[in-house]
Amino acid sequence: MSTPPLRHLSAAVLAFAAGVPSALFAAPFAYVPNEGAGTISVIDTAKDEVVAEMPGGAKPRGLAVGGDGRWLYVSDQPNNRLQLVDLGARKLGAAVALGESPEGVSISPDGRWVVAAIEGKNEIAVTDTRSNALAFSIPVHGKNPEHAVFSPNGRLLFVSAEEGDAVDIIDFAGRKQVAQVAVGARPRGIGFLPDGSRAYIAAENANEVFVIDTSSFAIVARIKAGLRANGIAMHPSGRQVYVSNGGDANVSVIDTATHQVVATIPVGQRPWNMALTPDGKKLYVANGRSHNVSVIDTASRTKLRDIAVGKLPWGVVIR
Q1: Which residues pair with 75 in a beta bridge?
Q2: Shortest CA distance to 305 belongs to which of 288, 282, 280?
Q3: Is the dihedral of CA 52, 288, 57, 127 positive or negative?
Q4: What is the DSSP letter of 7?
Q5: Closest Cα to residue 147, out of 122, 177, 116?
């Protein structure tokens, strides 16, 4: 087969061939950790095709892209570390020792801090992206923290304690827990309205989404979702929140004004964590047992296609 001329290649492919970080290009990339393969699949969201496979450690799960687009931060669960991946070179970089069984990872709105939920130690490990070194840890009351997500203003950190049936709320500047909110059994995914006024928590064994007022820490709504609700993704408009239902192989669309499910979209088997493109036009859903990612058109609320990735994809982050 002849090699196509460069003018026919996508910007994404040329970027990776040249070792240029994806942040320099208009079309964002979706990064998918494949925990069963130890790889990161890279999807060009303009063409919805895999353009690269990168090493991700022994069992990659949670991940976040650094503020400058150079580094991908990945929780490598069996090695108890935060693995850095150089996005330009597509190679493993340094690793940060964290603690037993790191899971969900997120980055602060200003790009300064990367946090990882440490299941085995019931704490949140905080890495400073200026030095790529562990800065400090914050203990939580809940057992087996799964996700740790910053509020949009970066002041609060919400932590889902999957064996504690609660959400721990951390004052990040004070580096201490200030509240705990009891929710349904096995809370997992967390999302916020863009203005930060409410948080949405998926409770897997309760098959519900709990809505928390971030000022009073009161539960203001409980929304029935599908079987084994787990992942949460908030639309940039704040009008819809998406919930992946692992047992039903679909995604629920919730109207945030009415707290009603307004659509249900079939995807692959065991949908898990998800992410939206910055413009909110497409939702990418990691389907663990189908070994693929479903792409949803958010306007029509229909699945556009499935993209094959590695074994047991755990989530998606888009940058």
Answers
A1: 82
A2: 282
A3: positive
A4: G
A5: 116
Q: In angstroms, what CA-CA distances link 22 with 9, 11, 131, 149, 222?
A: 15, 9, 21, 23, 39
- What does the alpha-carbon distance between residue 132 and residue 106 come to, in Å, rounded to a whole number? 14
Global pTM? 0.92
Q: Answer for the pair 120, 133: CB distance below 8 angstroms, yes or no.
A: no
Structural tokens at position 303: 């699945």
The backbone torsions φ and ψ at residue 17, rounded to the nearest 5 degrees and listed phi first, read -65, -35
**Could you tell me the CA-to-CA distances from 273 to 14, 124, 215, 227, 232 in Å, in that order?**
28, 20, 26, 15, 7
- Pairwise CA distance, residues 111 & 222, whole Å: 32
Residue 12 carries which DSSP code? H
* Amino acid identity for residue 120 in this structure: G
**Cα Rg of the chain (Å, integer):** 18
Pair of tokens at residue 50: 């895999």
Distance CA(215)–CA(210), nearest Å, equals 15
Residue listed under structure tokens 């840890």? 137
Residue type, 10: S
Q: The dihedral of CA 35, 39, 45, 49: what is its sign?
A: negative
Average pLDDT over residues 134-152: 97
Confidence of residue 164 (pLDDT cuts 50, 70, 90): confident
Calpha distance 210→202 (Å, rounded): 6
- Per residue in 13-51, pLDDT tens? 444 444 444 444 457 999 999 999 999 999 999 999 999
Q: Per-residue DSSP letters for 168-233?
A: EEEETTTTEEEEEEE-SSSEEEEEE-TTSSEEEEEETTTTEEEEEETTT--EEEEEE--TTEEEEE
